[in-house]
């Protein structure tokens, strides 16, 4: 296709080819959009942001590729409005990763883009931070002129004092005078802005606005890595050898075996080779202690990236990673896999078993561990998976030769693994030997440890005060208006909160039906905190859960206080179960372990073992052997027997047999289809049609329609269908057929408006 353009010098019309580009927009649309490039612009390269029209609005997209061929017939192609970047902000490796995620997890490139880029880049609303600095006017840089000025200010002592303060802050070793931040100058001198303005009016000092970084700069000392013990050195050598033949290595090391120090030595070697390292952690909480340790070794080469940073901070980190001329160590949660790396040499996936690596809502529902392996492959880099409790799938891959396996079976410096003590709650309640939700033996052990000056961690995997309120007369339970769930009582704020959608109301005192006072059922971390203060009035208590860590520095504050021994007892949800190191924790208690086992999930026993083994690993990390007390109504459960012996291999053998027998991963690939609609009748019609079509194609690999335990969320009725496909089958073909059925159902008149969300490899 040709476009008519005009040249001023000749006045003649010239026919030139129209350049078309495919643009990814941050929307859940199946295809890229085609735009034309005006004559006044050069064709933008792949990875550059462009402002394009969409309907009556404009939107920022990323150039995906030059469009192959002419525009489709009958389609009005609009011009791009503006090229926003001089150079690409998205690399070829990033786009390749996006393509894989969209293809594998059955989502759109637009959804991946929206998740991958910081909002400030997508919206193009980032602006650099600035600060006002004070500089010495050029005529006074020479010593003679400056002395004359000082002499002239003797009758203005405040001005003289401020100028002398400036000179002391500004002088460097070369006798030059550097700019001084205005705020620092006024704070240090103690003088007012009026005094500063007087010196500026005399043209002695000048105001200068400078762009500054929003990111904290490390000014501490840098020390070399610690020496490795024999076990750590053997692990390090084994990993290096494994990488000669395998892309991925699993480091299976018991808790407190010293895996982090092995990581540090590997990182140091990669940095010396000029290659960057990505260090993934499952929880933002884990970055606090780990960052301090890594920064003490790598200084300014360490970059931290996670969702608690502001949009502007994330933009600055993104560009720092993209533009750095030196190799970096990037530590972050799952979204860090989307950063624009240069010369990536290794990806560490710490606590690789954690389900937090799997994105749930919204799309893309990717697993960061899998995405990391793909990203490493694009760079020719290596992957190290580290954990004390591998996922069954990962351990299977290691035993079958897909990954290499390296093991560390002993704790650092020969420390013993903690002893596990079971307390039979049924027996304790029968004997009336309970203090609230604390058994008599546990209270005794806690008092002993506090008297010894030791610290305690209490684990309860439920936040809030009570899971629900109930009327003792009529049985009424306050429920969410948007979801089919009871609301959790938060006593501190006197509110009822839906933990599914966030809906919040003031907690009623009386039942609306019979006006009877509500009773509280169950307990969460907030209630435990109250009981601890009752039974241990002199103990210093802190709580770590979603409610206490909402602020940017919430994690850091709690962890710092506990590490500094300003807290005796730390109560927490799963945040306290992994990756944290405290020297004086001698006792860990699990208040309600059975809730971990009794989940409607084929992974419940695996997850329960992992969580309990991980939290037990917080005890006795230095000095004497630690102890873990587990309160349970079922002390003879085989999971507790395995846990008592720290027998991960025993758990694996039991689980892998069940997985093969009942067609679960790693022998089968799972895809869960979640169907949602405001209208229950339309939802049921769509569910029946989709299930029938899938059964016709996949047979017994497709389940019937599943009504989940929470059948309405955010005013959407919910149904599910599960697809199990053999690991040896053509999964690409299966996904293509699946998407054809989904598209067919969504256009049927009786099913319109039905949302169908595929979740590949659900966790």
Description:
This protein is of the alpha/beta class and 763 residues long. The protein has 6 domains: 2-89, no CATH class; 129-212, no CATH class; 230-413, Rossmann fold; 419-463 and 524-659, P-loop containing nucleotide triphosphate hydrolases (Rossmann fold, 3-Layer(aba) Sandwich); 466-522, no CATH class; 668-760, Alpha-Beta Plaits (2-Layer Sandwich), CATH 3.30.70.600. Helix content is 33%, strand content 23%. It contains 23 helices and 34 strands. Strands 13-14-12-15-16-11-17 form a 7-stranded parallel beta sheet, sandwiched between helices. A 6-stranded parallel beta sheet has the order 18-30-29-21-28-27, with helices on both faces. The longest helix is centred in the last third of the chain and has 19 residues, at 680-698. The model is unreliable at 4-15 (pLDDT under 50).
